[in-house]
Amino acid sequence: MPVAPAADPTPDLSTSGSPASRRRHAPERTLVGIVGGGPAGLLLSHLLHRSGVDHVVLEARSREEIEHTHRAGILEAGAVQVLVDAGLDRVLRDGSRHDGIVLRFDGADHRIDLTGLTGRSVWLYPQTDVFIDLANQRAADGAYSSGGADGADGSGGVGGVGDVGDQVRWGATVTHVLDGGNVDGGSGGAVGSDSGGDRPGVLWTDRQGDTHELRCDVLVGADGSHSTLRHTLPESQRRTFVHEYPYAWFGVIVETPRSAPELVYTASEHGFALISQRTETHQRLYFQCDPDEDPARWTDDQIWAELQRRVAGPDGFRLVEGAVEERSVLRFRSSVVEPVRHGRMLLAGDAAHTVPPTGAKGLNLALADVVVLHDVLQTWLASGRRTGRRDDTVLDEYGRRVAERVWRAQHFSAWMSGMLHSHPGETDFAARRRLAELRMLVASESGRRFLAEGYTGWGPVLGEGAS
Ligand code: PHB
After folding, report:
1. Nearest C-alpha neighbor of 338 from the set 413, 414, 399
2. 184 Cα to the center of ligand 1, angstroms
3. Residue having the nearest C-alpha atom to atom 9 of ligand 1
4. Which domains does the chain have, with CATH numbers?
5. How many angstroms is it from 345 CA to the middle of ligand 1?
6. 191-200 pLDDT, tens digit each
7. Least confident piece of the model among 113-122, 159-168, 374-383
8. Bridge partners for 174 per DSSP
9. Are 39 and 363 in contact (CB under 8 A)?
């Protein structure tokens, strides 16, 4: 995607050779511009709507496309609370509460009693359902003018910004990010609440190819791991901490009943496997594979044989087999971008950090980010009402408050991954040491509690409370 790094003045696309039928619409303004309408962007939109804050969400994909993307399925108790507090309580009816997980190694099950050890549970409720709940709620609140599945032309049609019926725009592709002349010059200093052209913005195109300009007081990148916004932040002013893994997951959706009552995380000499669940009739299973594996190359029988040999043990445990309906390879990557604020541009969710799927932390972190960000934006707006000048240094609170949880989740996800996967070319010594770690962990109540605390999400984390 062509993205001009912080280009200003606005390039005039209407004279840049685009067909005459493509129009350039008059610039619009809003308080909060949100790039990305996945769970993070939509939760922020929902919270801002409830607080009466004018905003616009731009999402390149259609609602249907997002609904058909499979993502991880575990919500921490704290994330469930966020949804329920936001008025989205379907998770309590359609999700299933899990009070424990199983670590399987040496061909035997070792249960981690999450609730007994921490007083907290987790909920199996896939990210797709979180998205559907948010999208339905935003539709019920009239946030997209088509009122239905997909704002067909993405332009929102009628009404100016400030009109609720125009808050969420599907099929809206951001092509340029305009940083408003770098509102604080990178110094973090305060700027006026209405600094004319000194405000970030984006150029975006709708499905007809028409170009639109959106200017906002603050711009949030909630646009996923391939974030457009992140790539426009100056390299010299950000650090990206990255860890790559030499393995990936082969993920399948299968049509079978459950093989086990709880999730089973298996370490075997043939590699890792995770037996997760979806419904009475469909399950989500994964097994460790090479990052370059081609899922099309595997027959259903080969997939089942690989899964069965990873979970096999003297207890005779076997998976119930059935049709393999979907398959894909999920690559692993840990990354953290710092800082998450540049002037009046902020990053949230996968745009700011990614984790490998082993600890199922990605969505939980994104929701936690958004709750803090919403709170900080309220404080920032209030600073403007009090003094007539918004204090942009308030925006730094966001990064400070989410950092502890982000790094805990990074450690937890990398630790779980390392302990449970066989590393290509791993020595016999390293394999035995991993097994020793697993045995020590389950034999120790402290070890089991450490795992359970991380898996269920630690509860409130240092720094997250109000500043
Ligand atoms: C899933 O069900 O997709 C899932 C569950 C637990 C994980 C990762 C993925 O750790």
Report:
1. 399
2. 41
3. 72
4. 13-70+129-238+339-407 (3.50.50.60), 99-123+243-332+425-456 (3.30.9.10)
5. 31
6. 222 333 358 9
7. 159-168
8. 204
9. yes
